[in-house]
Amino acid sequence: MAQTEIQSQNRSQQGQTDDLAELEAIASRLWQIAETQQGNSVSLLQILRVLEATHKRIRDDLFQSALPTSRHELFNLLRDIEINGGWPHIYRMKINEICRYLEQTEEIEELKQ
Predict the structure, then answer these.
(1) How large is the greatest C-alpha to C-alpha distance in the chain, in angstroms?
(2) Sorting pLDDT into bands at 50, 70 and 90, what band is 13?
(3) pTM attached to this predicted model
(4) DSSP of 53-78, one letter per residue?
(5) 92 in helix, strand or coil?
(6) Element containing residue 102 per DSSP (H, E)
């Protein structure tokens, strides 16, 4: 019985490793796509919108229903969040940050002239 349990855990861990490798490949491909759009703010913004929408769908449709149902599971989840980098968040630039960036760019251009 214990041997079967260990084999099941090993298969589960292998599946997680395979999923992680696939996810890393997807992230790498996404980065390649973004790099091809370097300098094209409209295309890069669209990529960010797709990422945000995907984040929202995973959070709302899958993650929330997978939240722990016991204190022990909740403790394990919170410990994982603390150890592995906190809560995922998609940062959005604010309009005033974009304006500050533009001002800095203009100042640099003026110094060059």
Answers:
(1) 78
(2) low
(3) 0.67
(4) HHHHHIIIIIIGGGS-SSHHHHHHHH
(5) coil
(6) helix 95-112
